[in-house]
Amino acid sequence: MKNVAAYVIVTVVAVLCSGCAGLRGTWKLAQIVPADAAGEYQMARVTFNPDGTFTAEVHDGETTRAISGTFEFDRENEKLTFATDDGKPRTYRAQMCQTCDGLLIVWNDGPQKRWEAKMMRR
């Protein structure tokens, strides 16, 4: 019975975090286009942990603050969702470079791409 319970737990974690494995590690904002869209995506650095949690350094004008919470990355549907303690999930579109595994491109969720942030693995 213990083996069945352990299998169920491992399976649930694997399903919930499918797509998360490729994001593991720390990513740093390299560029945002257009430059005046910097207020749209404020994460200067983000660390994705294997357990589905994240920590980030957010630049809000002249202020830098730390945030944390959970994330989900749906690689197939190109969705990256952050949930923080403020209770407001933030969903973005996102793609990882399939060949280099060192480039993450994030952009606004919506029918038209208004901005694009390029993040590099550190």
The residue fraction in helices comes out at: 10-25%
CATH topology: Lipocalin
* Stretches with pLDDT under 50, minimum 5 residues: 3-20
Our estimate of the beta-strand percent is: over 45%
Q: Which CATH-level-2 architecture? A: Beta Barrel
CATH class: Mainly Beta
What's the overall geometry?
globular
- Tally of separate helices: 1
Give the overall pLDDT as a whole number: 82
Top keywords for this entry?
single chain; 122 residues; mainly beta; Lipocalin; eight-stranded antiparallel beta barrel; 1 helix; 12% helix; disordered N terminus
Provide a descriptive summary of the structure in words.
There is one protein chain. The chain is mainly beta and about 120 residues long. The chain has a single domain (about 1-120), classed as Lipocalin (Beta Barrel). Helices cover about 10% and strands about 50% of the residues. The chain has one helix at about 1-15, and strands spanning about 25-35, 45-50, 55-60, 65-75, 80-85, 90-95, 105-110, 115-120. Strands 1-2-3-4-5-6-7-8 form an 8-stranded antiparallel β-barrel. Strand 2 and strand 3 (about 55-60) form a beta hairpin. The longest helix is centred in the N-terminal third of the chain and has 15 residues, at about 1-15. It is globular and about 35 Å long. The relative contact order is 0.20. Mean pLDDT is about 80; it is low at about 5-20.
